[in-house]
Amino acid sequence: MMRSAPTAAMALALSAFAFGGVASAQTPAPAAPAATTAAPAAPAGDAIVATVNGTPIRASEVAIAEEDIGPGLPQVQGEAQREYVLSFLTDMTLLAKAAEAQKLDQSADFKLRMDYARTKALMEALMNSEAKKAVTEEAKKATYEEFVKANKPEIEVHARHILVDTEAKAKEIAAKARAGEDFAKLAKENSKDSAEDGGDLGYFTKEQMVPEFADAAFKLEKGQISDPVKSQFGWHVIKLEDKRTKPVPTFEQVSDQIDQYLVRKAQGDLVTKLRAEAKIERTTPPAAPAGAAPAVGTPAPAAPAPAAPAAK
Question: In the 8-state DSSP scheme, what is residue 225?
Answer without folding.
Answer: B
